[in-house]
Design goal:
Helix content is about 85%, strand content about 0%. With about 120 residues, the chain is mainly alpha-helical. Helix 1 runs antiparallel to helix 2 (about 20-50), helix 1 (about 1-15) runs antiparallel to helix 4 and helix 3 packs antiparallel against helix 4. The longest helix has about 35 residues, at about 50-85. About 10% of the residues are buried.
Length: about 120
């Protein structure tokens, strides 16, 4: 998540060059490398937090609904922020940095559940 947070502004700069090559480089870096780094580790992290009876259904429900929530609202929020910035992406980029920082702090604070089942 730190790599994601640090990469937001540079990638938006690449997008602003209007060069297909640099736009492609930005997409590959963010989605092919950075996103893969944190997304690939999520399953193992989540599974290590809870005993099997809880994680089997409970984490699946949370994981699926968070995907719906994040995938559904983020484009709306970013579009509104770009509109508020009069077409510039910098406020939206700030929002993405803020979400990355929140994720870093939340991940740092994670502790395994102490459930007695």
């Amino acid at each position: 998540m730190i790599a994601y947070t640090v990469s937001v502004y540079p990638v938006f700069v690449l997008f602003g060059t209007a060069s297909l090559l640099w736009f492609t480089v930005g997409l590959v870096v963010v989605f092919g490398v950075v996103h893969a780094l944190f997304y690939g580790a999520q399953g193992t992290l989540f599974a290590s937090l809870y005993p099997t009876p809880v994680r089997y259904t409970g984490l699946s429900v949370v994981y699926q609904f968070s995907g719906i929530y994040a995938s559904g609202l983020t484009p709306l929020i970013l579009t509104a922020l770009i509109g508020a910035g009069h077409g510039t992406p910098w406020i939206a980029a700030g929002y993405l940095v803020a979400t990355g920082l929140i994720s870093v702090v939340a991940t740092k604070l994670i502790r395994p559940a102490d459930l007695h089942l």
